[in-house]
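W.,

You were right to be curious about this one. When I first looked at the sequence I had no strong expectations either way, so I just let the prediction run and decided to look at it fresh. Below is the sequence, 470 residues in total, followed by the output.
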Amino acid sequence: MSRLFSNRPGDDGLPGSERRIAVLALILGTTMAVMDNSMVNLALPSIAADLEVASADAVWVTNLFQVTCAGFLLVFAALSELVGRRRIYMGGLALFAVAALGCALSRSLESLLAFRALQGMAAAATLSIGPSLYRVIFPSRLLGSALGLSSLVVGIGYAAGPALGGSILSVASWPWLFALPALPALGAAALAWRALPREAGRRGGFDGWGALLAMATLGCFFAALDGNGAELPGLATLGWLALGVIAGTAFLARQRRAPYPLMALSMFAERRFSLALSSQGLAFVGQGLAFVALSFLYQQEMGFTPLETAWLFTPWPLTIMVAGPLAGRLADRFNPSLLSSAGLVLLMAGLASLALLEADADVFDCLWRTALCGLGFGFFQPPNNRELMGSVPAEKSANASGVMSTTRTVGQSLGVALVGACLAAGAPIQTTLWAGMATTGLSLLASLGRVSMAGEAQRARRRAATERVQ
């Protein structure tokens, strides 16, 4: 860990002492955003009962947060180029704290949903630019290790969220799930004000039409997914999809001619970026699919209780916590595409082993297979993120970060929708895990397609580092 805060001659990024404070701000902000939904999910039955609403309506406490967050990821990434990432990050944390207190004080579903939408916006402000902040905080030679640290933080959030939420609910009511994160969020905002680098915003306007079209595209996409899960008439789902395609087509047309586009299409001309982004999206489809499928497999097919199922999930984020930092450190020394490809092979093996589970399998059988999936994903994500962030110019890193976060969110949601489609068709739950293995296989093909390019880029970085020292 100490090497992350060491300095060498010619290093870019922040000095080691400032780097520590800045990283703490990022860790606190990311942890709050990641843990939020996993904690709140446990409280949905309590919220429905306390507010006297149907369970299906209470689910929107989670859904609205996700939809709003996804819709604003690209928007805040683009705004950060205008006003600076430090201001966007600090503003997002402050809004998250205020909205959390609003949620805690809500006594109606309508009020709670309004504040949850604000929380989703706030989370988008922090998550959209988080990876790009790692790039400006750390020296280029440590980018992989830094993104490995980011994976560790996300893994801790996912692992600790259900346990912390359950512990709070065992001694307090559901509003405390919202009230308690407010103070750490404000603390992270203060640290961000102290340590994050101050940037001069670029001159020029903001692509307002592009922002509206991006939000419309993602909103229609999520409405179609929600319609699929709620068993609405197929015509309604197709209608939302058609509107999403129209809005998406208009968005891309707008980006080609906008003076200051929300999403710089020139990034996709870099094949390393495009292939890494495709690999990421497909891998998150597989992970999102597996998370939902395993809930059904463990409870309906194997007879585990919800609490036992929660513990059976734990090896996935725990192994990401172990593998992620190691993979990130190795990505600074070896070809990151080879490392991420090896991780995808492990993930495919883990998903296949889960699909082959017998109904009478014991707990150990479930644990090691789930851990294998987490090990694979942990070795995939940091090297792949290094390729994503390292393959675009530094001035486009905020834009690339927003695209990366949006792809991750859409991929996970598509995975959930695929589970719903398979179950609606009457397919066995194991079929969905095989489908996850198939999408991971496509991710592997995209990852292997950039091995030689990533190797050449790594050699170029080493030559540049040598020249800076000399």
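Here's what jumped out at me. The chain has three domains: 15-195, 207-259, 270-470. And, maybe more interesting for your project: Residues 293 and 428 are 10 Å apart (CA to CA).

Coffee later to discuss?

I.
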